[in-house]
Amino acid sequence: MPEYRLFGAETSPYSMKVRSFLKYKGVDFEWIGKSSATEKEFQSFAKVPTLPLLVSPNRSPNQDSTDILSCVENDHAEPSCVPDDPACAVLALILEDYGDEWLNKAMFRERWGQKPDRDAAADRTMEQLFSGDLPRAKKKTRDQIIKRMRDRLPMIGIERKTDKTLKTSFERFATLLNTHLETNMFLFGGRPSVADFAIAGQLSQMLQDETPAQFLRDSAPFVTAWCEFMDAPKADGDFKPLAELEATLLPIFRDELAQTYLPWAQANLEANYAKNDRMSVKLEKKEFEQVTQRYAATSFKSVQKAVRRLSDNEALAKFLSDAGAATYFEKGNAN
Questions:
Q1: Rounded distance between C-alpha atoms, residue 127 and residue 117, angstroms
Q2: Rg of the chain, C-alpha, whole Å
Q3: C or N: which end of the chain has fewer Cβ atoms within 10 Å?
Q4: Nearest Cα to 121, choosing from 105, 152, 145?
Q5: Are the CB atoms for 232 and 24 separated by under 8 Å?
Q6: Which domains does the chain have, with CATH numbers?
Q7: Which residues are CB-neighbours of 76 under 8 A, at least 6 positions away?
Q8: 184: left (phi > 0), else alpha (psi -120 to 50), else beta?
Q9: In what order do the strands lie in the sheet with 53-55?
Q10: Measured distance CA(114)–CA(292) in Å, rounded
Q11: What is the DSSP string of 210-239?
Q12: Whose CA is closest to 120, among 82, 88, 146?
C-alpha cells in the first residue's frame, strides 16, 4: 500500500507542484487522476472541490499545496528543499507565493483568455474528466468547459484592463528566469526549493498551451529545459549562498516581483483587512483592479511574517532594499 495517495490532474499546476515534490522526496505514492470514475472517492476526502488532495498516513487529508510541501518536508527532511542560507530560504517562500498567487493569473490568462489555446485546453480537460471515454456531444461539452472556465477569469483577476499587465509580466519573468538558469541548475543552486516546484508547476502548464509554449521555446530555452527536468527533479549539488546568486536573482525581484506581485499582494491584503470586495493598485502606471482574493491575502501575510522573523539578517535586508521590495515587509504594514 503506497504511503501517500495524491488526487490530482495533469491540467492543474498545483497538482504538478505536489507530484514533482513527492517524486523528489522519493516517497511511495499513488497518483489518482481526478475524473468521473474517481469523483466519489475524491469527495469522501475533500472539504473543497479543488486540487490537489493528498491523503497521508499520519495527517488529515490536505488540499493546500503550500501546506502539503511543508508537511512532507517535516516528515521527510532529506533530500532537503530548504536552502542552507537563511536569507535564501525566505526568498524561496516569497517566490513560491509569487508562483502560486501571481504567475497563476498569467497561466490562467494564457490558457483560457485566448484562442486557440482555450479550445485545446478544453479538449485536454474533457479527456481528463471522462478518462478518455469522450461523450457523444463532444463539441457541446467542450463549449461548456470553456464557458465555465472563462466565467472564472474575473475571479482570478483577469479582466480586459489587466490583460496586458499579466502578459507583460509573464514574458518579463520568463526572460529574467532564463538568464538566472543559464548558470544555475535550480533557483537557489544545486537542488530545488519550494519556489522551484511552485513556479515550474505554473510554467509547465504554459508549455502545454501553444501560444505561451512558443514564447518559452523561442525566448527562454533554459526555462523550457528546467520545466521538463522539474517533472521528477534530482539534487545535483548543494544550495548556494545568496552572494553567489545575487547577480541574476536580484533582477528577478527588482524588475518583476517589486513591479507587479508585491504591490498587488500588499494592496490585496489591505483590501482584505478593510473587507472590501474589490482591490485596486497601480502597477507600472496602469490600474490593476480585481475581486479581493481572501486566500492570497492570508498567504502573503504568512510570507511577511517569515521575512520579519529574519529582520536582523543583514544580507536579506540589503537584498530586499536593493530590489525595492523592503517596504512590503516592514512591521506595521497591514498587520
A1: 16
A2: 19
A3: N
A4: 145
A5: yes
A6: 4-75 (3.40.30.10), 86-109+160-329 (no CATH), 112-154 (no CATH)
A7: 25, 26, 27
A8: beta
A9: 29-33, 4-8, 53-55
A10: 24
A11: HHHHHHHHHH-HHHHHHHHHTTS----SPB
A12: 146
Q: Is 175 exposed, middle or buried (0-12, 13-18, 19+ CB in 10 A)?
A: middle
What is the phi-psi region of residue 31: left when phi exceeds 0, alpha when psi lies from -120 to 50, beta otherwise?
A: beta
| pLDDT tens by residue, the chain, 335 residues | 789 999 999 999 999 999 999 999 999 999 999 999 999 999 999 999 999 999 999 999 999 999 999 999 999 999 999 999 999 999 999 999 999 999 999 999 999 999 899 999 999 999 998 887 888 888 999 999 999 999 999 999 999 999 999 999 999 999 999 999 999 999 999 999 999 999 999 999 999 999 999 999 999 999 999 999 999 999 999 999 999 999 999 999 999 999 999 999 999 999 999 999 999 999 999 999 999 999 999 999 999 999 999 999 999 999 999 999 999 999 866 66
d(CA 329, CA 331) in angstroms, rounded, equals 6
Question: Rounded to an integer, what distance in angstroms lies between the CA atom of residue 173 and that of residue 161?
Answer: 20
Contacts of range 10-14, beta carbons closer than 8 Å, 24 or more positions apart? 10/124, 10/128, 11/121, 11/124, 11/125, 11/128, 11/205, 11/208, 12/51, 12/52, 13/104, 13/107, 13/201, 13/202, 13/204, 13/205, 14/50, 14/51, 14/52, 14/65, 14/100, 14/201
Measured between alpha carbons, how far is 153 from 84 in angstroms, rounded to an integer?
Answer: 39
The set of cell numbers assigned to 277 is 470586495
Which helix H or strand E contains 31, and what residues bound it?
strand 29-33
Backbone angles phi, psi at 6, to 5 degrees: -115, 110
Question: E strand or H helix at 140, and its extent?
Answer: helix 138-156
So what's the pLDDT on residue 279? 98
Pull the grid cell for residue 210: 501553444
Distance CA 225, CA 231 (A): 11
pLDDT (0 to 100) of residue 45? 97
Q: What is the distance between the alpha carbons of residues 27 and 307, in angstroms, rounded to a whole number?
A: 30
